[in-house]
Amino acid sequence: xxxxxxxxxxxxxxxxxxxxxxxxxxxxxxxxxxxxxxxxxxxxxxxxxxxxxxxxxxxxxxxxxxxxxxxxxxxxxxxxxxxxxxxxxxxxxxxxxxxxxxxxxxxxxxxxxxxxxxxxxxxxxxxxxxxxxxxxxxxxxxxxxxxxxxxxxxxxxxxxxxxxxxxxxxxxxxxxxxxxxxxxxxxxxxxxxxxxxxxxxxxxxxxxxxxxxxxxxxxxxxxxxxxxxxxxxxxxxxxxxxxxxxxxxxxxxxxxxxxxxxxxxxxxxxxxxxxxxxxxxxxxxxxxxxxxxxxxxxxxxxxxxxxxxxxxxxxxxxxxxxxxxxxxxxxxxxxxxxxxxxxxxxxxxxxxxxxxx
Length: 357
Prior knowledge:
Mean pLDDT: 94
Radius of gyration: 23 Å
Number of helices: 13
Helix content: 25-40%
Distance between the termini: 30 Å
Largest sheet: 7 strands, parallel
Strand order of the largest sheet: 8-7-6-9-10-11-12
């Protein structure tokens, strides 16, 4: 893992990241900037060094993987209190579960995410899960490996052509899912409280309420963020409100749906199957009940983990951090209300200029 040195007076702008895996394009882009010092700090094993680096940082690229990043390096009020010079934070993904955005806003810290960087990959994965469930791909594979004496009809699945897909959230990922659905001959409905009806229609879906979506959709697919308004939103009542034999898919975030309630709905036969990329705990324990069901297709939060998406996200993060450290407003501000304060703090940083040799 490269380390471009400790911050020093030779470089007035100090950017830190931890030594968790990141596409090399990030270090290449930041390393090419003569006025930015990049420090790659240990995520584990040398807390004193990492804390010292973050204490002097102006910018922090932080992993968005909540179960991979050690808790002490989450951007929360405690860490912010240790980092008086921190002016901008970039989450390494579309999500920002590892960043306390209100605490950053209160401290005058601009927060960006990389929404859209992995959208194509996540949209594709949505259909990988859906088709695997509907066509019983994993079950067929396992039976071919281990069983004999069964017929093709024993593995008969269902088409998605002509079905209704209901999207809970139609942002950058949901919009791509809607476009792909048209090619499969699906009808698209969507619920997104952050968008008006005309915008939802422009993105390829018929706007509906959440209860109507649950009652009409043959496939319910989640594409919303995890926050206070969505945590636990798809609970036992929501699963009960879904059409009999509907399929549930989530490439959003663990915690939006109730895993125990989903297990009950599947075991009772109310739902046909589920495709799950996200979990309350990641990876989920091997004895997680959902993993034992033959009509569940599971992946390890890999929807956005492709070579292309990881490069896009790393490039986007580097570009936004460089822009902010030049005093420019970035395109993916999570807390836009903080920009007047954050930009003033960045301007003060820039006004210091390079150290005199």
